[in-house]
Amino acid sequence: MSYFVSTLYIAAFAMFIYGLMGLTGPRTAVRGNYIAAAGMFVAVVAVLIDIRDTDNWALIIAGLLVGVVLGVPPALRTRMTAMPQLVALFNGVGGGTVALIAWAEFLGSDGFTDVDTVPSAPFVVGSLFAAIVGSISFWGSLVAFAKLQELLNKNLEKRVVAAAKAFQLANIVLALAAVGVAIFIGVNADPANAPTSTIWIGALLVAAGVMGLFVVLPIGGADMPVVISLLNAMTGLSAAAMGLALNNQAMIVAGMIVGASGSILTNLMAKAMNRSIPAIVFGAFGGGEAGGAVGATAGGTVKATSASDAAIQMAYANQVIVVPGYGLAVAQAQHAVKEMADLLDERGVEVKYAIHPVAGRMPGHMNVLLAEADVEYDAMKEMDDINGEFGRTDVTVVIGANDVTNPSAREDAGSPIYGMPILNVDQSKSVIVLKRSMSSGYAGIDNPLFTADQTSMLFGDAKKMVSEVTEELKAL
């Protein structure tokens, strides 16, 4: 039977990898997700076959049912605007599960002492590493979820960001405490010693958990996409470590895939923001969403426009570029934008979509939103591919994107986002910005683009205003 289980594991690993390959392109992403999910199902079946002699089938079945009940409805009902929160929450559950497994292994082996010989280093070290990292990932992900869901009081967040250095000092103490407790447990993990008190594993989990809270709390909203990716990588690493401890091939391979892909994505996103990962984790950047007064931002004057004027500009353009941001997601305006683009296409106007790597609140957020509205994949252009187009673009329509279009990143050495690669929207002949108000983005700074000579502001709900522009286009 062990050969059969091993065969199932190999099949599951192959499906994981093949599914991940599918996620590299929008055309194959859905299929890749299904393949990877089928691989996970095969891995679960393999585990159940491997433990067929257990007496805990009632608990196992109950756990599976609870997981399905708690996991499926949110996945089906969650709006795309809240998808980053769901990803953060699901990722945190993975880290918390790994920490609980490590705790259970400690309790089940009397503090790692209930073995025939000296316990193996992979079992002890892997379990303790998984307990620390899994706990950090779980509690950190909960904070990320709360921030993205805007459950935290804004004034409290600002005070926390202001006290970032105090949190960093506390994190150093907590990290030393967690590692010290882990070393103590490991040193005493010997059959010749009395079982280590359960207080120690509890202390380790508490220290790591509080550290997870304190690490993420001071980090501003602008960095949340990178933080989610980093926490995802940590969950994968903790799962791989626990798999090594339990000699479970499924956990090892799945954890390594998640950890490696999460690490690569985190690094790519950090580069897209021109910042290092330590600077993101310890920088407390982008904590505020300070609002500016209409007509008085960045030292210039804001020029408002109307739906009819915007429609005329776009109707007689050769090329229009749409720059989506989180505001588009909040307004659920993707279908309205697609309808407007179809009308422009009928008039011979070429419409493209400029996607910044960190637009929205998670990697690929804008791509998924637009794909949901049946926007052609070829029309979605990544930053490096589209930046050369702005100089010969007649009209660029910015919908809710702020920091990723801010020319201060390119021109103002004193700006907090200086050096961050941006979409060169300001090089367009005409720019129309759709926003509810003049409030700044997550970086909490003014955007000179809004007061540029070629820029006009179309204030209001993005979906409503795009629909009004569409009606004006139909009337032309």
Automatic annotation (TrEMBL):
Reaction catalyzed: NAD(+) + NADPH + H(+)(in) = NADH + NADP(+) + H(+)(out)
Domain of life of the organism encoding this protein: Bacteria
Transmembrane regions: 6-25, 32-51, 57-76, 83-103, 123-145, 166-187, 199-219, 226-246, 252-270
Enzyme superclass (EC): translocase
Compartments it resides in: Cell inner membrane
Keyword annotations from UniProtKB, A to Z: Cell inner membrane, Cell membrane, Membrane, NAD, NADP, Translocase, Transmembrane, Transmembrane helix
EC numbers: 7.1.1.1
GO CC, alphabetical: plasma membrane
A single MF term (Gene Ontology): NADP binding
Membrane protein topology class: Multi-pass membrane protein
Residues covered by the NADP transhydrogenase beta-like domain: 7-471
Similarity comment text for this entry: Belongs to the PNT beta subunit family.
The protein's role, per its UniProt record: The transhydrogenation between NADH and NADP is coupled to respiration and ATP hydrolysis and functions as a proton pump across the membrane.
The protein's name: NAD(P) transhydrogenase subunit beta
